[in-house]
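Researcher: Batch entry, complex prediction.
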Amino acid sequence: MTRLLLVDDEPGLRMTLAANLELEGFEVIEAESAEKALALAESDGRFDVVLTDVRMPGMTGVELFRKLKPLRPGLPVILMTAFALEELVRSALDDGAYTVLSKPFDLVHAARLLERASKGPKVLIVDDCREEADAMADMAKQAGMSVVVAYNAPDAVAAVTGGVVVDVAVLDMVMPETTGAQLLDEIQRANRDVAFIGVSGQATEETMRTFANSGTSWFMRKPFAPNDLVRLIAKVRGTPAAKRLA
Amino acid sequence: MNEAVARAETPLEVRARGLYDAARLENFRRTDKLFAGLMATQWLASVVVALVVSPFAWEGRERVVHNHVWIALLLGGLISTLPILLAVNRPGELQTRVVIASAQMLWSGLLIHLTGGRIETHFHVFGSLAFIAFYRDWRILLPATLVVAGDHALRQFLWPESVFGLANPEWWRFLEHASWVIFIDYFLIVACLNGDQEMAAMARKRAEAEMLSEAERVKSSELDLAVRELQDSQDLVVRTEKLAAIGQLAASVGHELRNPLAAIRNSHTYLQRKLSSAPGGVAAVDPRMGQFLDIIDRELTASAKIIGDLLDFARERPPALAPCPLRPLVSEAISVVPVRPNVELVNEVPEKLPIPALDREQFRQVLVNLVQNASEAMPEGRQGKVVVRAVGGAAEPFLVTIADNGCGIPKEARERIFQPLFTTKVKGTGLGLAIVSNVIKRHQGSIRVESEVDQGTQFHIELPSSGSADGAGSEAAA
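Model: Structure tokens for the complex:
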């Protein structure tokens, strides 16, 4: 069973959320403050995923995330917030928080998200141009994400099928040997839950449309700043999967 | 030299000249009328004089109706008629003055003749010249002088008794008279010029005064206007501050409500699941349990929407533009809109449409709001169809249309639908279309509505084409 650390100072919300997540199959350990959560993490230790409120009296959820990072590297932390603390949340995302949920959120979506995050998924980066692929990988690594890089289509497919859990794939849309769309298809066949970000300097609109038809239509035009990529990955991770179009 | 010629007259000068001209004209007319009266009087007087004086001077002591009386009557009438006619019909004109001045000097001549060259009658000449100076037009003195000099000269040589009462005056006598006349003329001319100058000066002063008071009036009304505008601005500032304060309050309340809502929703979800999984299901506990659980669900959704609208409207986040194919986005939006049995939602956005640069989440909301509005506007019993179309995007801007065959929007409402807090629905925040309008504006686009009551409505959204949109990177929200 996935062990979830749930941190929120509002008892009504915390208890009901915990109860529902337990119905979804999680083992939920509650903490009523970031300080308590930190203490639990230090002593008890084995958590698979953390779900924490941001705005709390005393230490905020973002500070908690920052303190957990060196303590338990690789532990996915998902933030939830009722307030639009844009700057604060964004800085957490830049540092590699998995994603942020806006209250009130759909429970089923949250459960799926938590389950996915708990597996410590990686970001797959595919680009035939080595420098570009490595550059993007660095951006993600700087933020504390786990990354796997592929420089061609076959490697990419191998990365997905080889037992590594990937939840986001950043694909260069224009590659030799195979089009981004074909690669997308192959990856999806291997793992349905992967979300795609299409990246390119000059992709044709045809290619973009095919990507869009896959149901995940996030695009970025090169060049972009490191933060842009990291934030988009976090945003994509937090979005419920759109229905796949026929 | 060129400067003096090229310089246009100032408004002050124009006005002064106008006033001066008017005063001059008025003076001419007045004086013309004065002379008309004088002419008539002189005529009468001359007849009386002829009756009383003339015979005495000529024939010793015998008084008869001399032919002088007839001369007085006829010649006097002749001299007077034209001046009087002109004074009445053409007052103020130059020819009138000239005729009058000449006639007046002829009268002097006639009166002198009728009194037989009597010295005292010669005073009439100087008096007349002075009267003529009333015109303040020195030029008129010239014809007058010429007439009197000519008359004296002529009669001295033809009929000296008529002028001087003597049979043999010295040959230069007329010159002596003429030089007195010229002497007087000089001073009269000076007087005319001075009087004229005075009129000009007064006209200028009047013009100045008028312009000053006008300027004052203009300034005063400008001041009034400025004060009113200031008042309006102040009112606006107060209103805006109030709105801002209310907006902040609303946003803060909205945020505060999210936690309680989340807690209620979680509780509801738990209850629903537990009760559904119990033997017999929800209905086993109480027949209406299921219904009430649904009510909680619905009302929570409604509450979340109200708060969501409020916070979306208040937040004004700049769009993070990225290439975003429109057709799949429309499909997604349609899938989110609650289904109504009599309403069909159709996505007619072409596959091959160029890809616009949009903030995906914000524009999705635009589409959801518009499609949902259209769906809700469908009256019961009508087979409703809401269609989303799009064209353009290459050379011309994108034109996205959401068209429905619903109940339409009346003209008075049409002008106000994009205003915040305006709604024709019984329930509703009135923010949906305001949010749509804001998002579209921030995408550098525009939206307009066409509608026919009971026929349907079309919303037309214009967005910049892909060519002009900046799609480099996905801009991070500020």
